[in-house]
Write a structure and sequence with these properties.
mainly alpha, Glycosyltransferase, 2 strands, about 65% helix
Length: about 425
């Protein structure tokens, strides 16, 4: 045997003897489920019919914006429904114009001047204007308080008003003391009401508590909001039908995208080459889909879906396979190539706290964020979770403030960043 061959065998044996902190990830649950969509073109005639129907309904919804109906409450509810259904990208121009007109009519010096005492109306007006980028003062909610400075107990009997107040409170920024109080009050009251109401109403309230709008990915919540809206006898049938048709059209597009990515993944044969890593192609695509679900971003979604999957492989090389010596060499290589500069930030931001904590504890050389917090402050696991969640709430205030004040950045770009945090 030559010296070179002998050295190669020796190296291979040494590598095979290394004890690696593998996490033994479960295989993908999806298998070949999405391959069927990679080359699907058999339903083109049906797709054409759906697109034609959608275009007709879209024009009818646009006409509703031009209605001479002076009822501002109805306009706000209409815009709110459009946003909840995830179809606002079709009507952004009309929404901008309507909210600008309402802002000019009902505010002065960034303060809501409406004399209407309806809790739902004022909270919804505040939320829609603030999330639109108007710097609306939260002092309007002092109207909800009594002479002692506490929120009126009568508000506890106004379920719609409480829900709207709860949603508005999630748009608070640093210094919004009245919204901090509003959040505590509405959260406490809604939790109490959930134990007293009918099962259907209780289910809705519990959903709002788990998934407030400002922390939800609209695409993932759209079907739920359509279902709730449909149960309202006064719902707008044209709007609801358009929302359903648009949802189905986008769903077909997204299925096609994940089908194409799955085909690429299978052909690359990565999991046989890198068996220690997670096979999480669909989950990675879902992260990207959450950032933007719009049709014009299709190519970008597929590229980013592939990229995030590759980054996951690198993450697992660091966390679940490589030795310290190997990873030092790999890190030096990355530094020389000037690639993946923000790699660790990207990965750490893209994992759920509990999920990450569980798997990190399966690896001997990795300390979880919860464990680090416990050790740093000398506190219990429960206290560490509370502290981290408090930090998350504070970071949401920062995200809100930056989102509302970033005038020179397109809203579509800001939405991508916010949606990434929402996942």
């Amino acid at each position: 045997m030559s010296i070179a061959a002998s050295a190669l065998v020796s190296t291979q044996n040494a590598v095979s003897d290394v004890k690696r902190p593998c996490a033994n990830f479960a295989p993908s649950i999806w298998g070949n489920t999405f391959l069927q969509y990679a080359s699907e073109s058999m339903h083109q005639e049906v797709d054409d019919i759906m697109n034609q129907q959608a275009q007709i309904l879209k024009e009818e919804v646009k006409m509703m914006f031009q209605s001479s109906n002076p009822n501002i409450m109805q306009k706000l509810n209409f815009i709110d429904s459009i946003q909840r259904f995830g179809i606002s990208y079709h009507f952004q121009k009309e929404i901008n114009q309507a909210l600008e007109q309402i802002h000019n009519t009902l505010t002065k010096d960034n303060t809501i001047i409406s004399e209407d005492g309806n809790h739902h109306f004022l909270a919804l007006l505040f939320r829609l204007l603030r999330q639109q980028g108007y710097q609306i003062s939260s002092n309007v909610f002092n109207k909800f308080k009594n002479e002692q400075g506490n929120f009126n107990e009568t508000l506890a009997n106004d379920i719609q008003g409480l829900c709207s107040l709860y949603e508005a409170a999630h748009l608070r920024i640093d210094g919004d003391d009245v919204l901090e109080e509003a959040y505590d009050f509405s959260n406490t009251q809604l939790m109490s009401l959930a134990n007293q109401l009918s099962p259907s109403l209780a289910a809705q309230i519990n959903h709002y508590l788990r998934q407030p709008l400002n922390k939800s990915v609209l695409r993932f919540e759209a079907r739920y909001h359509m279902t709730v809206y449909e149960q309202d006898s006064s719902h707008n049938e044209i709007l609801l039908t358009f929302a359903k048709v648009d949802f189905n059209i986008l769903q077909k597009m997204h299925q096609k995208e994940i089908g194409i990515i799955t085909k690429w993944w299978k052909q690359s044969n990565v999991m046989k080459k890198v068996p220690h890593a997670r096979d999480r192609l669909v989950e990675c695509y879902l992260w990207i889909l959450a950032m933007s679900y719009k049709p014009e971003d299709s190519n970008g979604r597929m590229f980013a879906g592939k990229l995030s999957t590759v980054i996951t492989l690198l993450d697992d090389a660091y966390d679940a396979y490589g030795t310290v010596e190997e990873l030092e060499l790999l890190t030096e290589a990355f530094k020389r190539l000037m690639c993946f500069a923000n790699y660790s930030i990207y990965i750490n931001c893209s994992k759920g706290l509990g999920f990450r904590d569980y798997f990190e504890q399966q690896r001997v050389h990795v300390a979880s964020s919860v464990e680090c917090c416990m050790n740093q402050y000398g506190i219990s696991e429960v206290e560490a979770y509370k502290l981290i969640r408090k930090d998350i709430e504070n970071y949401w205030k920062v995200i809100n403030e930056e989102y509302f004040n970033s005038y020179n950045i397109p809203k579509s770009v800001l939405d991508c960043g916010a949606n990434f945090a929402r996942m």
